[in-house]
Design a protein that fits this description.
By secondary structure, this protein is mostly helical. It contains 23 helices and 3 strands. The chain has 2 domains: about 70 residues, no CATH class; about 475 residues, MFS general substrate transporter like domains (Growth Hormone, Chain: A, Up-down Bundle), CATH 1.20.1250. The chain is globular, with a radius of gyration of 26 Å. It is a multi-pass membrane protein.
Length: about 575
Amino acid sequence: MLVKGIRNILRWDAPLLKYRQLRQDSTGPDQGTTSVSRDTSSDPSIGTAEMAIPGGRSIRASSPTSSSSMAAAALAEEAHQLPKLSLGLLIALTCSIGGLQFVWSTIFSHGSAYLFSLGITESQSSLIWAIAPICGAFVQPVVGALADNSRSRWGRRRPFILGGAIGVVISIILLAWIDDIMRCLTAILGIQSKDTIQTTVQVGTIVCIALLNLAVQPLQLGLRALIVDVCPSEQQSLASAWAGRFTGISNILGYLLGSLSIGPLAEDDESWRFRFLSLLTVFMLSSTVVITLFFIREHHAGDLVAEVQEPTSIFHVFRDVKDGWAIMSPQARRVCLVQFCSWMGWFGFLFYSTSYVGRLYLAESRKQGVEPTDALKDASIRIGTFASVLSSITAFATTVIAPHIAASKSTLPSPILDGLKARVSAGWWRQKHILWAMSLFLYAFCTFCTFFISSTNAAIFIVTLVGLSWGITQWAPFALLGEEIAMHEVEGEDDDSEVEKGREGMTAQSGAIMGVHNAAISIPQILAAFGSSFIFWLCKGDKPGEGNGIPWVLRISGVAALVAAYFAWRLK
């Protein structure tokens, strides 16, 4: 029953069956089914094949020989005419992004505290969390190329989404109960040394986190590439906006639920809190992925008429990753450049903003003569989490409002290309890349304000204000990149064969392109992690509430944001 249910969810090949039926009609009954109708009313000696194609149209051929070629041509044309999705389908398509984000909100809110409860030190935890950007930089592009070369009848993206979701569910459950699992294993093996047991638990934790990050890659890649594949160009911005909204909702829920006391449910300690959040994560991710797989169908007809290719080798995979960068348009490459610089800056805020607010709270308390007790430290964590909740709410509101403010780049002048007149034209600032640039300028301004901030309330306000920039970052780059890929798909119909081939290649390898884009997000995080470690090393010996390296990490992040804002402003 389970296999049958999965097969029904993944079934997407109705257009392919129709195409095969038409080919059977032209080659004889030995090829398969024979459900293509024949109309012989006009001339009994000449059969006319009729076939329905996606979109509700039908085609007719004057002879069995020509029917196959006409069907292929019609299907290829249909590949460039994706139907508009209803609001319900847009929600079904993007809700899984929210389910995936709930995984990250659980990790960001209580992952480090959970590691500390297992005896892992701060320096070790920083190296463990570096697994995530490393996997994103080097694993996801390969996964994207594999998905692009997939000829599964279930689709190019859907098997990767389902497999990744199953892997995430298994790994996060193992991570939540790794202490009990490894202690049972060592008891079975007769190991009694406490140090050995502790080391075994830590090794198991690292393995589970590595598996979790590996499983996230096909899931994240598949969900983002699916949006590009099934949405027409005019809906790419709206789809990205809905993805950003679900991301914001998941962030808010994750931080709020993480701040609740679970005493009535279980022991109110960090391990049980993380287990509680992990179970919620499993429910959120599973339900949203099932909705996406059940309601969304891949119907890229261009893949259906493509000839069967040879099995993909690992060398072909890396070649496709390289080709993914090669076939990217200049605009798409510029988007990746902006992402590279901006994520060099976002790393510091995402990982240290909560600690920044909490340490300011401790500093204020020390000035008032209050000793830093455990209760005060817990209060500082709640204050920092409260700032993160406000920032998430602001980001969510931004993802809801920004798409309605933004205008299509085809309807407004470019402030770069059209000169001074365009700069003063009404509404030029509504272009997506201009909004993105202004949000990065705002983020840089907020980080530089740390030179003057000395109160907790001011820090909370700044962190909340950064939510505006974060909301734009969760929407604008994906909208720009998705529009660029979809636009090349449509424009290819009117170009000559060589140009059209390149444009179709860009669309066919959207997974590899999204993988390259994700690498542009992940690699700067790795660099920022090492840079932050160096800054903390220079500022070692800091005590809670006193001067520390976190403000300097944020300020240097602002410099990277300024560079990113400059490149974003120059986008077309």
